[in-house]
Design a protein that fits this description.
This protein is α+β, with helices and mostly antiparallel strands. Helices cover 23% and strands 22% of the residues.
Length: 216
């Protein structure tokens, strides 16, 4: 919560504006506190004694257990300020950001959702650079069966919500969980019922039904 309020969660960008160090056990200089000026935070961050949008980043300690072939256990502690040089970031970490110049590497991305996330960070098409080749099948061969199933179930849940709001939903259409509710609704409407507003790309005709076992 502390990190969220200060806009310091993973993926937040910034510039180092100062640091404090201390003397370690071997008389060496050790980084104690890093001061980072946040880049374009969603709101102004104010920490007592520091300029606007400058936040302190303290080291954290992680402990790793190592077991030797003999069975002997050792514990290693690493104390480190958790920042990374921002030469690149994953599609996940880039969510919510907009870049005038967006260099993207699509080659190792696994899905069309990842392609969308990486490319939609660009402010303009002219500012988008694709670094190497990619697999066009990931964005032209249609969505996966599981994603199509998810969209179909959401359409049914939307229909349930609308009918309940209009007070047209029978009392017997109930369910403690999402799957139970879908099963109850389909028992009332019929397994081949498709709401009229469903896009043709995800409609389920009799030859491609929404199989009962998939929603139970």
């Amino acid at each position: 919560n502390y990190a969220t309020e200060l806009c310091m969660t993973h993926g937040q960008e910034g510039h180092i504006v100062g640091w404090q160090s201390k003397i370690g056990l071997r008389k060496q200089q050790i980084l104690d506190t890093l001061f980072v000026e946040l880049k374009d935070p969603p709101h102004t961050v104010q920490v007592d004694g520091l300029p606007d949008n400058v936040v302190p980043v303290y080291p954290t300690t992680n402990t790793v257990q190592i077991m030797l072939p003999s069975g002997t256990k050792y514990y290693i502690q690493r104390k480190q300020v958790e920042v990374l040089v921002n030469f690149a970031m994953t599609d996940f970490a880039s969510q919510g950001k907009t870049r005038p110049d967006n260099s993207t590497d699509l080659h190792n991305l696994s899905s069309h959702q990842a392609y969308y996330t990486a490319l939609s960070r660009s402010a303009t098409a002219a500012g988008t650079l694709i670094l190497q080749g990619f697999d066009p099948r990931k964005i032209t061969s249609g969505c996966s069966g599981s994603l199509r199933q998810e969209f179909r179930e959401l359409e049914l849940l939307d229909a349930v919500t609308e009918l309940r709001y209009q007070e047209k939903l029978p009392k017997e259409v109930v369910g403690e969980t999402r799957n139970e509710l879908l099963q109850s609704f389909r028992e009332w409407k019929g397994e081949h019922y498709v709401p009229k507003v469903v896009h043709k790309a995800i409609r389920w005709p009799k030859r491609d039904p929404l199989v009962e076992s998939e929603v139970v």
